[in-house]
Amino acid sequence: MKRLKTLKDHVYDYIADQIRTGELMPGQKVNENIICQELGISRTPVREALIQLAAEGVLNNTARKGFVIKSMSREDVREIYQLIGLLDGYAAKLASDFLTESDLSDMGFHIGAMDLAIRSGNYPMYHDQQTTFHQVYIDKCKNQTLINTVSGAKNKLLKRSYTDSDDARLQEVFLDTNEEHKEILELFKKKDKDGLFKYLSEVHWAPTYMEYDMLVVLPEE
Fold first, then answer.
1. What CA–CA distances, in Å, run from 89 to 71, 177, 197?
2. Entry pTM
3. Which pLDDT band holds residue 109 (cuts at 50, 70, 90)?
């Protein structure tokens, strides 16, 4: 049974979404009072969520500044990709026996939606659809600790804003990535557990690929 989310979990997701969408940027302080006002809640669940994000390495917590969005080097991002590949691949392996025809159909729908988003230049929609695609099987792995760990690792990848000048490069990269999503779906249909683990860890989340996917904010060099 899927664990019900607590108020702290909802605050955690709210802050993580602000990081992904670029509303909170590396080096920026998280204002606890504003979050309390926006969500209409007390300080306790906000503080609990911030402590968890700090423990996962998403935030720095200092005595003078409070909670600040952590900046990452290229090596930091490369290491996170390696970790996500292993975790995501293992989640897929565990989930293989539990996915229903409806789940597979949903994944196919998200692949189609990604194609549409890419070709229309709606890259935020692409990002949302690819996140949902992966979450279909991650949620079925029947290991809540693994689900939470994957989520925490992915929250460290800070999505950047897209501009018109990105279009040609992004469209090519995202179309190639969506072909990988199609291969992942085929592996699920075949129930190829070892193939899923290998493909996700060594191909789809390959650290060498992270330089080109344009989904993370990297510091200027």
1. 26, 16, 4
2. 0.76
3. very high
